[in-house]
Fold these 4 entries.
Entry 1:
Amino acid sequence: MAVSQTVDRPHPRTLEDNVNAYFDRAAKFCTHAPGLLDQIRICNSVYSFAFPVRHADGTIEVVHAWRAEHSHHKLPTKGGIRYSPQVDESEVKALAALMTYKCALVDVPFGGAKGAVQIDPSRYTVEQLERITRRYTHELDRKQFIGPGIDVPAPDYGTGEREMAWIADTYGQLHTGELEALACVTGKPVTEGGIHGRREATGRGLMYALCEACRSADDMRALGLSTGLDGKRLVVQGLGNVGYHTAKFCRMQGAIIVALAEREGAIYDPRGLNEDDVFNYRKRTGSILGYPGATDILRSADALELDCDVLVPAALENVLTSENAARIKAKIVLEGANGPTTPEADETFRMRGIMVIPDVYANAGGVTVSYFEWLKNLSHVRLGRMDRRRQAATEMRMLQAIELATGRTFSEEERHSLVKVTDELAIVNSGLEDTMIVAYQEIRDALRRQPEIGDLRTAAFVTAINKVAIVYEELGIFP
Ligand code: NAD
């Protein structure tokens, strides 16, 4: 008899298998009806399509693309667009599912989605990339898979502000006069309706997540570490958007970046690396290897096994596996990339007492600030524009009242530090910091309430599943 059940595969291979395995592990700690859990777990809709691209020599290539909307319990759905030659439908569905749980964890009122075009962007000219991006947007629009209230893409691996600007422009061309058109995509350049702080939001969010985890004296004692980021030794894989900014913000909090890993190899320097200098060196020479003063590691993946306090995989999925998990020396794994750890490696980390700060929470800074950008686009006004002067004037009057009451006059320097005209970036960063702290504490509390859950990832999935389940229960079933 065919029974709807989850088969425990001994060696899950795909990211979709992995995400489902994490879901199933967490579902055992939830009390919802099996049918409701099935509805939360399933990917609601996938649009799979193909279109031609013309090359300079006249040849035509067919390109495959997808958009998956995992859950419509909240609208719009939200998720990045990935340009990668390895991407396939299963990966897009898995990434869309992660978006659902991620949004729920950080209280961003969106369903999860993800998009992809199966190309290696480095093989195309800028003009071809623009045509591919515009055609992709047009296809999404034709099938109602994009729109400010429908589905809102953002950058992911292989895409950035440039592609988001093309998407916004294409959508705008197709929807002349639609007042909210700019809110059809986030991660745009600031000059095209983007928001200050979005570019670095994922890395900054990862830093806030690590700070919050490292604030607990009990948790750090259990790992044999001191509290705070000061002096913590980090190994970062991937010097792209997420890895670069995570390295930067953690270093600014006192962490030491002892190794950076890229495609061509890795470099190690126990005295600490500066991500900016390394980035510029790599841009100039075409390789991270040979960086002055550092030791070259020719097999990039070997860097994951270096002695360090915190390992930050911020490039690809499935890099921490049953093959290398036992050799990982980090006490904390901070997941910048989506799906860097397989369930087998996760199990090994749990057994070895390694703390994993899971992707589904840790890299949610990007979607959080995307939400702020979407709100900004809908309200048509820069954050803080309407009241920042009034607020500063109120603070100034308060200082004057204190001066009057105490008979003491504040110095110019004190005045300056106490009264601030808040700009958009400060508001965004404060909203992001608050979001990451609140979400971490929710996850940590779930683990405290049910210690048998065993780890932060499962606690994060339990928290997310419970939040989505409540929404489904309240909505009922249509018709
Ligand atoms: P990116 O394209 O900016 O950077 C990826 C970097 O990884 C590149 O520098 C690339 O050269 C490097 N890389 C590729 N293969 C590698 C290898 N084998 N070893 C070491 N480095 C390698 O992409 P990104 O936006 O930084 O995304 C990275 C990961 O973070 C992805 O898993 C993505 O889904 C996830 N993520 C991104 C965001 C975001 O806001 N950009 C948000 C959440 C999650």
Entry 2:
Amino acid sequence: MAEDPIRVLFVCLGNICRSPLAEGVFRSLVRARELENRYLVDSAGTGAWHAGEHPDQRSVEVARRNGVALSGHARQIEAPDFADFDYVIAMDRQNLLELRTLARSPQDEAHLHLLRDFDPEPGDGQVPDPYYGGPDGFERMYEMVNRACAALLDHLEEHRLDRTTNEK
Ligand code: 4NP
């Protein structure tokens, strides 16, 4: 029997800089490991200001330089996302606080994580907002997002194997 895919939603403020990059990087890591059938990946923002826009050109560029294509349009997170996604992954603590206020149950809250909690070099635990900074902010963002997404995928694959073993 086919396993249900693991559903992962990356969340930042505007859904044009950090979370589309995390979505694209994670998707590309999934593809490189030939796990496309096992993951559903999306991103959203806690704010609606940029809804409908393409990712910020600076994120598109840093992704492209690293062999990752970004696509999609920004959207604001909605209450059903908490049930529709197994993992709702915030870029910074402010995103996490906003998400906690939107969560409607302990089950919703249990889906919330900070991306850099998976980072082997977590720094202060956040992916800083690069929107008003210079280009090196986007390079640093790529490094942390790439490292954390690789570790997140390792974690999810280990967890999935645990689940499969427990079901036997
Ligand atoms: P993001 O970056 O949350 O990584 O998409 C931002 C994008 C837009 C704004 C702030 C952060 N803004 O204030 O419009």
Entry 3:
Amino acid sequence: MNSAAVQASSTNYDEFTNKLGEYLANNDQLVAVVILEASNTPRIDARFGRSHRDAQLAALSDAIDASIRDTDFAIQIGDYTFAVIVPGLKNKGHATLAGRKLQRVVQPEMPEPKRDLGLVECRLGIALAPLHADEALALVKRAQLALELAKDSNRDLVIYDDDTVGQVSVAWELRDDLAEAIRESELEVFYQPKLNVQTDEVYGAEALVRWFSVKRGPVAPDVFIPVAENSELIQPLTRYMLNTAMRSMMMWQRDGHDIGVAVNLPSSMLLDGGIVTMLEALLTIWDLDKGRLTLELTESALMRDIDTSIDTMKRLKDLGARLSIDDFGTGYSSFSYFKNIPADELKIDKFFVNNMCNDMADQHIVETIIGLAHRFKMKVVAEGIEDAATLELLKKLGCDIAQGYHIAKPLSEKDYDSWLDARRYAQPLL
Ligand code: C2E
Ligand code: MG
Ligand code: MG
């Protein structure tokens, strides 16, 4: 495959569709079109510089070439986008297998030198002839639509089906509505209290985005955060969250509450380093006790590219932020890098906490994470506490901080203020 011709991508596109036409004319089995897009392109540019791009792409092409069969055909059709023809398939399952094989070419577990590609993630869109179209241009279009859906729904592989067009339009509409919601200040920040388990004092709060859409009603963050992450909208959304949370924190400090706030960081911004510049700028506006600002990064986000993540984390720490690893226990971390992560806090996923009173295995996991965190001089937060028994047990196990519906649900800023005032006179929860 000749990847030097990024500029000539339209020529390559034509070559691909012509070739596909030949395959379609001469095949009586299924033919798959796989469109592969490296999904972490900003990070690649940030880390290696654009000049590095051609060499990387050549290496990626070679890796793809080496992985396909003699009867397949692959070509680069755009910046970071490759198209592959896979003939002779018996069913959709085989198409998925062919796609997975291509994905492994760019996986982080790959040994050197492929890891050097810096291309650790890709998404695939697949369409099959004659199932989805029997004409080359239409088939490629369907594979591209499947890729769009993969991006919007945060999946790594989508095979086209009758629903794809509808789902892509739904995601586009959601993105447009979200863009407007950001512009029109329709997003809100809710605060979920965190309690110091050992002293029963309020420790702070986690800032959680809420979208009460006039048009759609409430939309869950799990639905719109992936859409934001796959577009440029994640930047203004994160800036809004940080800015609002920092402003609230100033207010609480002014009112004599010695508490902090934690903001969730999206994985995409962690990988391209954009978050460092953003935080630096916001810190010049808000003059706060920086040690009280915590940034939550999910374990699986860190695992996407651990070296770059650690690098960004160090820069965030240099700015004075505390760092917390969110949803700990679900992201398949390994001890080989754990010791190098500059985190101040581990946040145990609610999956383990929810049922720990009834399930000894979950209890052992929670106990082990607490021990691990303390060994590394980190604090431990348990999230998802829904009853008094769990809170009691966590206290006994030496957990530092607790968060969950039993303490309080996420509250609007006004309700959180009232909650803070009420807590001064309330009975201890423990
Ligand atoms: P997360 O950071 O792990 O946030 C905790 C989630 O658990 C929140 O859901 C919270 O409402 C929920 N939760 C808290 N206590 C309990 C409990 O006792 N039981 C149960 N079952 N759930 C509890 P939410 O607000 O729906 O957020 C879901 C996820 O969306 C968050 O998970 C976070 O990954 C993401 N998210 C939320 N706000 C933001 C944001 O501003 N920026 C980014 N990048 N992600 C956000
Ligand atoms: Mg969180
Ligand atoms: Mg969490």
Entry 4:
Amino acid sequence: MTIRPILIHPDPRLKKVCDPITGVPVEIGKLAEDMLETMYDAPGIGLAAPQIGVTQRLLVMDCVKDPELAQRPMALINPVITWSSEDRSTYEEGCLSIPEQYAEVERPAVVRVQWTALDGTRQEEEFSGLWATCVQHEIDHLDGKLFIDYLKPLKRQMITRKMEKLKRERARA
Ligand code: NI
């Protein structure tokens, strides 16, 4: 497994609508392993393929934050939201592509998601709580959408400028 570099916003690859994955090629299993490794290392609770520069519809997540509990690594190929609750919930979201910036985002509190697992089987599950927020945030990535796109333009621009500055500093280092 390899820890991959995570792209930092702004980057055109983070704005792309990602391509569906056909079947479950061996490379996808390998890519999912690398993404989980990269996510745990960051550390984060979710990572979408475009965040490591692969514009395909794959995301990984594990919202078990309590170190006492067993990890629950998940890899979702071509995930689709098939139902969203009218109930909404607000979480302070962050993103590994937008380091150290957090903002409240309101989303449906419960969602039902269908996807293909790494063993090729079709899966469907209802997510609530942090899992619901996370899976929606990551599916947004597959459509070129970031959590800051839900914020007011001024706040979004402020964060984008900070990220541009961070990238200049990192390029110089
Ligand atoms: Ni993100």
